[in-house]
Specification:
Largest sheet: 7 strands, mixed
Shape: elongated
Structural class: alpha/beta
Number of helices: 13
Strand content: 15-25%
Helix content: 25-40%
Order of helices and strands: EHEHEHEEHEHEHHEEHHEHEHHEH
Distance between the termini: 42 Å
Length: 331
């Protein structure tokens, strides 16, 4: 079975992640494993790579399933219903071991180290960085991530000195970015599987909980960041990886160079424009035009404060009447 692949496509993300994790632990799994959550992602993959075994959710219409070419097609179903020729039904509500056995019952497998199983596609890295602070950069990055995650798998990583933690990430999964870096330093195992067990979610957007302490973040060297990014590209399922980058990260400009595109938010305000101009000129004068070529400058809407007539004389609105405007989005 070596050299073949098994592709899973299912809208139920947590179920699919758990299935993938168990499949990856099989000693006889001398196959490449891939995971997708949308038919659009799956179609793009099938245009680039032959699918040997496809395990797809029965919730997708028969006509949609048949458009995906595969040597063998197994359909996850909720009851024992008849399927068209060329498709094999697999009951969803049974153990992962039973599903695996049904798929590979006629295959003579040779034991292989499960940590060498490759999972994923090469994802594009989107950097979000600005020399202007407190303008809604993180809100913009997360908003963009959630929008992109409606169509493909997206991972958000926060590399800021102070991320806001529970303000943005109320679900606190097991482990954080520091733990993921520790796992990466060991140089063993499949990073994609590790991330799938650590990731929290905001709607469809996956994220790794940020590092808690500034000192720990500053201690990470640029080669470690670059190595982690490369492994995420190589071993993970994500079509996009969003890096929300702060000033204190080591190797800031090298990390920006490693991004496929960089969004630089700013606001229409004199000090913001002055900082943006200084940053742009600094990159030009130091020979970093490569970063500028990848950069999309993004104008964000300024925060507003609504004032009542009675509060004008005091110079500001009462606390309960203040509000912040959302970020203008364009993806």
């Amino acid at each position: 079975m070596y050299g073949r692949n098994l592709v899973i496509c299912d809208r139920e993300k947590q179920y699919a992640k758990n299935l993938l994790q168990i499949f990856s632990s099989k000693h006889e799994a001398g196959v490449q494993l891939y995971l997708f959550y949308t038919l659009e992602e799956l179609r793009k993959f099938s245009e680039q790579k032959k699918i040997h075994i496809l395990l797809i959710a029965g919730e997708y219409l028969k006509e949609e399933r048949e458009k995906i070419p595969a040597d063998s097609r197994y359909v996850l179903i909720r009851d024992n219903k008849l399927l068209p020729d060329g498709e094999n039904g697999v009951l969803r509500y049974q153990s992962a071991d039973a599903i695996w056995t049904q798929i590979f019952k006629n295959a003579a497998e040779q034991e292989r180290d499960p940590e060498s199983v490759t999972v994923g596609t090469n994802g594009a890295v989107i950097g979000v960085y600005s020399p202007v602070h407190r303008i809604g950069k993180t809100r913009f990055a997360i908003g963009m991530g959630k929008k992109l995650a409606e169509k493909e798998s997206v991972l958000y990583l926060n590399l800021e000195e102070y991320s806001g933690e529970e303000f943005y990430f109320r679900e606190k999964p097991e482990g954080n970015l520091g733990d993921l870096l520790y796992y990466h330093r060991q140089g063993r195992g499949n990073l994609g599987i590790r991330i799938s067990t650590m990731a929290g979610q905001r709607e469809n957007l996956d994220y790794i909980y940020p590092m808690l302490y500034l000192q720990d973040l500053k201690a990470v060297k640029k080669d470690e960041w670059l190595g982690l990014l490369e492994r995420i590209r190589r071993e993970c399922i994500y079509g996009k990886v969003i890096l929300d980058i702060g000033d204190c990260v080591d190797g800031l400009f090298e990390i920006l160079k490693a991004c496929d595109v960089i969004y630089t938010p700013y606001i229409d305000e004199s000090i913001s424009m002055a900082k943006l101009t200084q940053y742009t000129e600094s990159l030009r004068k130091t020979g970093m035009e490569e970063i500028l070529e990848k950069t999309v400058q993004k104008l964000l809407r300024k925060k507003r404060v609504i004032k009542t007539e009675s509060s004008k004389s005091a110079g500001r609105a009462p606390e309960h009447l203040q509000r912040r405007e959302g970020v203008r989005r364009a993806y």
